[in-house]
Amino acid sequence: MKVMVAVKRVVDFNVKVRCKADGSGVELANVKMAMNPFDEIAVEEAVRLKEAGIASEVVAVSLGAKPCEETLRTALAMGADRAILVESDSELQPLAVAKLLMAVVEREAPQLVLLGKQAIDDDANQTGQMLAALLGWPQGTFASRVELSEGQLKVTREIDGGLETLALALPAIVTADLRLNEPRYVKLPSIMAAKKKPLAVITPQDLGVDVAPRLKQLKVAEPAPRRAGGQVGSVAELVSKLKNEAKVF
Amino acid sequence: MSERLGITEDDRAIADAVARFAQNELAPQAHIVDRDEIRTTRYASQLAELGVMGMNLPERWGGIGASPAALILSIAEIAKACGSTASMIGAHYLATDSILIGGDDMIRDRYLPDAASGAKLGAFALTEPGAGSNPAGMITRAEREGEHYRLRGVKQFISNADDAGFIVVYAKTDPNAGTRGISAFVVDRHTPGITVSAPEKLMGIRGAPAHEVTFDCLVPVANRLGEEGAGFYTAMKVLDNSRLDVAATSLGLSEAALAAAVAWAKERKVGGEPLANKQGIQWMLADMKLRLEAAWLITLQAAAKRGAGEKFSDYSAMAKLCASEAAGFITDTALQVHGGYGFTRELPLERLVRDARILRIYEGASEIQRTVIARAMVA
Ligand SMILES: Cc1cc2nc3c(=O)[nH]c(=O)nc-3n(C[C@H](O)[C@H](O)[C@H](O)COP(=O)(O)OP(=O)(O)OC[C@H]3O[C@@H](n4cnc5c(N)ncnc54)[C@H](O)[C@@H]3O)c2cc1C
């Protein structure tokens, strides 16, 4: 079966993000970018399906400006077979991304689309769900385990009460949670080999999708700084402080 | 992210992959490696799997065809996490570069793929008790005995020697011919007649063991690298490359020290305000940054010359001198910013200071680099 994976270019998780002074967004100038960690888990899962002989081809898709090609090259180095960039300099909100992905799905006809559960920049946690709704496909979100048995996809999800296992008919959408797998170290020869793998560039116009934002972002602000903590000398002092200062009980 | 001069997207992709491994696997162990003198040769197979042990080699022998800049960035990333590991890799490259530069395809085919795959670690034996800065003064002898050479002598401070699969040994085939009497040989580590001493007790890079090695053994003629008498020329070419590795290690240690100093200065409050507000501290940070960036530039300039196939001995000497002296200044100043805490073994500053100290000594001490730089102008 053909597997498609969506990957987003985000600020590297090691970077301490800062808001722009005018509150219009997050500072991106001279900031290190990387693949969204949850998408990396999704790529790893797709590559493992291929290595297990279940997936026949892994296609990585990214949406955004030209530098997203670097993110796609990472996916190729991890083991994806080819890549597609839907190139756009506009702001792409989850709904626009879902619509673009739907158009790519219609062209590529994958049996399974893997995405990260959310991107660590806007934490929207919407794209996979919206894509499933637009396509009318079953969805397994927050997957911590994915298994294919007898043409059905068994997806284990982490929910508040514990683990829930769903059986999905294919084609389906799955979004990856943290514990689905541990992505591999990309080997240096694979990075060199990835340069030779095909990477196609198309535009939202090619796909006939209107990507105009539907939501307006009013302001981005730093969270209030946390007050420094203090050390207590004894349990009794802790209880007294909880009671009298924090007024917890 | 804006990049330094001459670094391509591919170079960055390679360095990022190495950085990830280094930060996850090497950095958390670095203080234990230092404290307990754990040999970083134990990382060789993991590093080989990643592609690092053959990074200096062409694809034909299991390398990846990386640019000199990618090599520098990668070694810097490893040094940022663990100076001992960077040093261990540097010694391996000294050995494999010797074979690549001095040998023919037959011997390259015999040793280099195993070196790249991690099956065999390399060591490089040039220095002797009586010949460090002046390797031409070596007295180790290789005398022809039929289809073999009889190798006799003592080599000093040989990194990786005990755990190596092979040692590249430089010896005199003609004691009357000066530098033209020196030849290079690849010697299997477990050849009868090789004695490796217990590792030296070192001030820094304590996870990169260096040994005295005594040779009284037979080496097949087929294990000679190139012609008789070509060894000194090979060694000098190898050192041109390896001095860039030392520069890269210097840059990595400096990056780690400066990042720690900046973070500390912003966090630590003295007299009610962060250290970073004090002009005296700001000037320290500024001087550290300036020397770091200058060292990066000259190192990348040397790498660009190497990549273009130009002669770069003087540039690699300048890069090594500039970067290793900067590393001494930067690690020491970063410790100063940390005050008493920097002097404790709870923080990595004192280790960075100790690890950086060797960089001004091995592969040609600072004085020797100056000689190389001057010779390019006046000779
Ligand atoms: C941890 C460690 C690992 C090493 N690994 C290896 C290895 O793997 N393989 C290998 O072959 N060697 C290795 N070495 C050896 C290293 O390269 C030498 O120690 C170095 O070249 C200096 O030689 P020396 O120690 O004999 O010092 P000396 O040559 O005795 O020099 C002493 C001092 O005098 C200065 N000096 C010497 N000549 C001049 C001059 N003409 N003008 C001005 N000043 C001068 C030097 O710069 C130095 O400061 C290693 C050393 C150490 C400590």
From TrEMBL, chain A:
Domain Electron transfer flavoprotein alpha/beta-subunit N-terminal: from-to ranges: 23-211
Could you tell me which Pfam families the record lists for this protein? ETF
Q: PANTHER family recorded for this chain?
A: ELECTRON TRANSFER FLAVOPROTEIN BETA-SUBUNIT (PTHR21294), ELECTRON TRANSFER FLAVOPROTEIN SUBUNIT BETA (PTHR21294:SF8)
Record-linked InterPro entries:
ET-Flavoprotein_bsu_CS (IPR000049), ETF_a/b_N (IPR014730), ETF_b (IPR012255), ETF_beta_N (IPR033948), Rossmann-like_a/b/a_fold (IPR014729)
Report the family membership: Belongs to the ETF beta-subunit/FixA family.
Q: What is the protein's given name? A: Electron transfer flavoprotein subunit beta
Which species is the source of this protein? Crenobacter oryzisoli
User: So which domain of life are we looking at?
Assistant: Bacteria
Q: Which UniProt keywords apply?
A: Electron transport, Transport
TrEMBL record, chain B:
Instruction: Describe the location of the Acyl-CoA dehydrogenase/oxidase N-terminal domain by residue ranges.
Output: 8-118
Instruction: Reply yes or no: does the keyword Oxidoreductase apply.
Output: yes
Which PROSITE patterns is this protein grouped with? ACYL_COA_DH_2
Limits of the Acyl-CoA dehydrogenase/oxidase C-terminal domain: 229-377
Domain Acyl-CoA oxidase/dehydrogenase middle residue range list: 123-216
Entry keyword Oxidoreductase: yes
Known InterPro entries for this protein?
Acyl-CoA_DH_CS, Acyl-CoA_Oxase/DH_mid-dom, Acyl-CoA_Oxase/DH_mid-dom_sf, AcylCo_DH-like_C, AcylCo_DH/oxidase_C, AcylCoA_DH/ox_N, AcylCoA_DH/ox_N_sf, AcylCoA_DH/oxidase_NM_dom_sf
Q: Name one Pfam family in it.
A: Acyl-CoA_dh_1
Its cofactor is: FAD
Q: Mind listing the UniProt keywords for this protein, alphabetically?
A: FAD, Flavoprotein, Oxidoreductase
Task: Cite the SUPFAM superfamilies for this sequence.
Answer: Acyl-CoA dehydrogenase C-terminal domain-like, Acyl-CoA dehydrogenase NM domain-like
Q: Hey, which family's this protein in?
A: Belongs to the acyl-CoA dehydrogenase family.
Annotated PANTHER family: ACYL-COA DEHYDROGENASE (PTHR43884), ISOVALERYL-COA DEHYDROGENASE, MITOCHONDRIAL-RELATED (PTHR43884:SF12)
- Protein name, per record: Acyl-CoA dehydrogenase family protein
